[in-house]
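Throughout our pipeline, every protein is held as a single compact record rather than as scattered files. Nothing more is needed to write down the fold, since each code stands for a local backbone conformation. The record that follows is passed on verbatim for readers who wish to inspect the format.
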Amino acid sequence: GRNFPFLFLNRQSVGTRRSLFLDDEFAIGLLVDHLVEMGHKKIYNIAGRSDMETGKRRQGAFKKAITEAGLTFSPDLIVEEEYSALGGARGFQEIMKRKPKPTALVVSEFNMAVGALNAARKAKVIVPDDLSMVAFNNLEFASLLNPTLTTVGLQLQHLGEEGFNLLVDRPTNEEIYQTVSRSAELFLRESSKSIRK
């Protein structure tokens, strides 16, 4: 049969398949930079577990972004949890026990952010007045939450163009080929706010 070229979009492949996926470092950097520009300095991270590839990668991206913003990084700024709403809720509860209190949270996965928002509501922490919150992954549901959630996500049109060009430039499936995409965009919504007076 004919050997049609293909690649994975926004998923890292295993073995000899090619993939094009979001650059976690760039995306997390967009979130941290956004918060820093609004005056936040006490920024914490609800992250996936470091024994998972994505968790480890995004934790590293958070640490780098905090350091490059001129803030002091400490391991206490990160709470590891599972990628789920329950994990996000537990992460929020743990972070709110820490000192100094955060003014902003970077949540490394969308479902975790939903759980963190719910936990904040139950704890009577008002987002964004008391605490700004931003999240990795821009799902349509983000604009339906209360408050609506500031996220970073894929520019799907640009990702599709990059994928097409990759297939044209590399028309066979024989070689191992992976690349990262910087087709990330910040989607500003209600959950993040400046703390400058």
The chain has a mean pLDDT of 84. The beta strands are 8-9, 19-22, 43-48, 78-81, 104-107, 132-136, 150-154, 178-181, 184-187. The domain at 24-154 is CATH 3.40.50.2300 (Rossmann fold). The radius of gyration is 18 Å.
